[in-house]
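lol so apparently i was supposed to do this last week
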Amino acid sequence: MTTSFATSLDALTGWRTVLGQRLGETSRFLDDHDLVDGAAAAQVAALRDRLANDKLVLAFVAEFSRGKSELINAIFFADTGRRVLPATPGRTTMCPVELAWDADEPASLMLLPIETRNEGLSLGELRGQRRAWKVVPLQLGDPDQLAQSLQEVTRTDWVSQDQARALGFWDDARPDDNPPVDANGRVEVPAWRHALINYPHPLLKQGLVVLDTPGLNAIGAEPELTLSLLPTAHATVFILGADTGVTKSDLEIWRDHLGPHAPTRFVVLNKIDALLDPLATREQVDAQIETQRRETARTLGIDARRVFPLSARQALAARVVDDPVTLEASRLPELEVALGTQLLPQRRQVLEDVVLDGAQQIENHVARRLGDHRRQLAEQMLELRGLRGKSGAKLRLMLQRVESEAAEFEQCTVKLQALRVVHSRMLKDTLVGLSSDRLREEVSAMQTAMSASLLNLGAKKAFIALCARLRGLLETAQGRSTEMRDMLGASFTKLNAEFGFGLALTKTPDLERFTNELILIERSYVQYLGLTQALRLSQPKFMEQFRRMLVSKLRVVFENATGELEMWNKSTSAQIDSQLRERRRNFRRRRESLERVQNAASDLELRIAELEEQDGRLQNFLGRARQLLESLREQACAGPQTVTDLMTLTVPLHDEAVAPLRRAQG
Ligand SMILES: Nc1nc2c(ncn2[C@@H]2O[C@H](COP(=O)(O)OP(=O)(O)OP(=O)(O)O)[C@@H](O)[C@H]2O)c(=O)[nH]1
Ligand SMILES: [Mg+2]
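anyway here it is w/ guanosine-5'-triphosphate bound
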């Protein structure tokens, strides 16, 4: 693979790997020297996981036969030396096809039978149920077997009209759009609902996920595709045919599925080879392509630099026979450069922000923990230094003082206990509105409202009302968590003053991110509910599938919000526990050193030296941890060289409308 997209993705992966290694080193150091508590260690682990498993989802969207599959072949599979995904006349991709690589699974094609639609389970739920899928092993190194197996994604079955209606491929209200009926009154429907190709392609191994879609305008298009897969893709490639121009149905897809809120969009004007005309000069053809490119951009309302005229077929053929001149003429490399230079820096930025934020939190944690430890050492040292030249009677007095101080300190446990009770009650109150039971109740309320009014307008209204209620729940949780923080803040101040703790609060999680995610879900669902397809919600099975899909999407948002709040609370409680432990240990140490000094005066200097050495060690730890984190930050900011270099050469990175979306996706 020598395409520039591949090179840039390589650079991005290399960078991620080095970042992962640096983070690994840092985390080992922190563990070895007991510099983080359980909650903080879990945070470090989550960051590592994020870096290792970051995915980049690229969706190919278009009307039938625009060349989606061929383009995927040319970009990703040319090195097999043949056409791998079916993309010849009459070979229509019938179901969404996801290409990815999971090293824990063997190379395979997994197919979800269309009948699973009858069960009302969402695709998301079925992903976890292996038994529901037919698995076809793929023989790597045998491109013919590979291509043969992948033909499955074009398979169809013939079913009765009733079955087709139940599966959602027949709609009595839209007779013109229904599929043709054969002599026996049967209808042709896709055999599979979804296909997953697990294939160790270098780009897929690096976390790229490619989504090939069947025509979205057809009756029976999977709502999950529209509502879940496309809105969460990081970028979409929308394909038009240079031979057909922008047709009415192309425009419908663009408007309905790739509207202004869609993620970064690339538009391909495919099949420019079809414009070649023996009676026209090369210049004339080029001028025609340029005109078409501008017109396309105008029709879609985007910058002309986002439209890429090319020939997927020519590019695939050129790559298979290794003909660089034809490859250049196919103009595919221009699209690949754009993908590499616009998409990847955007991913890089998201990860950079995550790492910088994570590094800062770890540093704060370590500094706090070590600072507290050092403060206690300093107190102890002060005490011991004060003992120099003191008599045995004085020592006994000191010992008594430590005992009484320790006893006094123990009184804090009552207060801590009370604090814990109040804290856990407040936490419960905060989280109750975000529970899955509450979510289900709210969605059921929406469902009742929807079935009371089956017109599209009513469904939309009920859904919008649900979203407003859910946003309200997040706001309430945010308000309660602020109250909790205020309560903890006041208690910490008191505990610090009364018992010498060094308790400090960190910022409470900002739930706005989750509100933004809700807004994103709301947008794509509202758009969907405006489509005629949504009429199918009047069928109970589709309503059930819709409900399950919605609940599972919303649950992720609410669970993540709950998770962040819980994490914050856990780390707050962990801080109290560890300081309590540390303070007790400190009293014990003070007592022991006094006892030792009592037994032999010479021990005093030894003990002071020990404490000084211990303090020096802690300072070193802090220095080393800071160094490691700094090197992590430097690596994060440096980024993969090739990508940053290329970045400066090209057109603006984002459509303005996309910015909030990307932030939320991060
Ligand atoms: N002339 C020409 N034909 C192309 C090109 N790309 C694809 N085709 C042809 O267009 C037809 C459709 O290509 P596919 O890749 O199957 O299109 P698709 O968008 O995946 O179509 P569906 O799977 O049916 O939705 C096939 O016959 C391809 O050979 C191209 O660059 N030039
Ligand atoms: Mg196809």
